[in-house]
Amino acid sequence: MQREKLIPEFDWHTVLVQPWSEYASNSLWIVLMGFLVSGTCGLVGCFVILRRMALVGDAISHSLLPGITLAFLLTHSRDTLPMMIGAIAAGALTVALIEAIRFSSRIKADAAIGIVFSSLFAVGVILISVFADKVDLDAECVLYGELGFIPLQEVAYFGDQAIGPKPVVRMAVIAVIAIVLLIAFYKEMLVTSFDAGLAASLGISPARYHYGLTLFLSIVIVSSFESVGVVLVIAMIIFPGATALLLTDRLSTALWISTALSAFYAIFGFHLATWLNASIAGGMTVIAGVLFGFVWMASPNQGLIVQYRRRQSNNNENLEPFNQEL
Asked: How far, in Å, CA of 16 to CA of 262, rounded?
């Protein structure tokens, strides 16, 4: 019996050429959806990271499960609107509970986040388990998603003209809304992200923009979860922004870099998954993690190599007077 190899043999034609020659249409929709999800999450994620809200994003991504389950139980529909409403309600409840625990007890923010998201996520798992015969929701699909199914989704039409799979069209609309909001409120978001005290003195409400960002984050997550899953979407929120912020100190530049990185994740993650016959969303996340590790090591200003050389240079400068005395 021939044993299956742990890592498949790399075939240039199968991995890189065939997806764009024989299956070009399917490959295009898959990569485009991956880019839209990662790009939109990356734009929002830059502000999430600057505000130290990464764990809040994680909490929201997990707490969506009971929201979308309850929405289905109440409406018996998997249409976008009820799912979106249920997810937004769950996201708002998550933030409200976290803030309530923080300000009414001695429990710190990280502990409050852990309490809320684990509790709500457990409620969602129980709801799916109890109503498994009534709820047409695949828990594994909700958790992990599958970009490979995107070309099989129902097609959206503009009049009589077919546009593309509905999830891609919906995510494109969310991406456009994100860009418009970013342009319209960039200065306010910039000030409230870096100095809430200064923002308040200028008449800008930090709380209003905090909750507005959280609300939009919930919308982005629920628009993404059916393609990349609620577990992996948090990686798309963190990796593009975190990697970009290691490469530059300017937020505007970081937003452009995060968008470019998102395209890199989508393309190379797709080909990695094709080679390994694995989850495409997982392939994107692996590429994002590897690239972050490389930038963390080799960043020209903040990388570990540069920091090591600086420490060595400082040590040599400190030892120089002693060497001269000797």
From this structure: 19
